[in-house]
Amino acid sequence: GGPGAARFYRSTSMADRSSRLLENLDQLELRVEAFRDAASAMEQEKEILLEMIHNIQNSQDMRHISEGEREELNLTANRLMGRTLTVEVSVETIRNAQQQESLLHATKMIDEIVNKLLDDLEDAKMRLMSLYGACTSDVPAGPIDQKFQSVVIGCAIEDQKKIKRRLETLLRNLENSEKSITLLEHQKSSVRQSCNSKQD
Predict the structure, then answer these.
(1) DSSP helix, strand, coil percent of the chain (3-state; round to 5)
(2) Are residues 52 and 105 in the same domain?
(3) Closest CA relative to residue 125, chosen from 136, 111, 113, 135
(4) What is the pTM of this model?
(5) Displacement of CA 162 from its chain's centroid (Å)
(6) Which helix (H) or strand (E) holds 160?
(7) Domain range holding 129?
(8) 89: which DSSP letter?
(9) Is the dihedral of CA 103, 114, 46, 178 positive or negative?
């Protein structure tokens, strides 16, 4: 063929090359997303492990064992806590200015309730539940905080998941602390009853 044929051959190979590179990048995009998901899962696992160790340290059972055993178990728990903290996993979320603003706003709304936790546990729990209701796709059990919902919708998807997780953890810890308080009250009243029965 003449010079035209060579030019045609070159242009098709450029198109081939281009589509092959695009295919490679598509494959890599899948791997990048899988990599980020795996790192996010590790980030969550770290949070869960720290919470579980913390819950053991503050459990009722810890209060009802000898001082020596408690000390030994606390040493082990602290060692595990330390080893967990040596793992640094950080998945940065890419946000635009509006998403950044929404995240700060949502965080502030949660923090305000958390700061008032000790003043009124029951009220704080109800308010946190209405925030949680705003994050979940299920039909919530109680009222939904509409203002919080509109703020969360403005956040990046990854941040929405993190906000929901944070609220779940807070509610779970509240549930546990309420159980502890109830148990303590129950123990005090049973001690009072046994004291009264001795006096009879």
Answers:
(1) 80, 0, 20
(2) no
(3) 113
(4) 0.70
(5) 5
(6) helix 157-199
(7) 94-183
(8) -
(9) negative
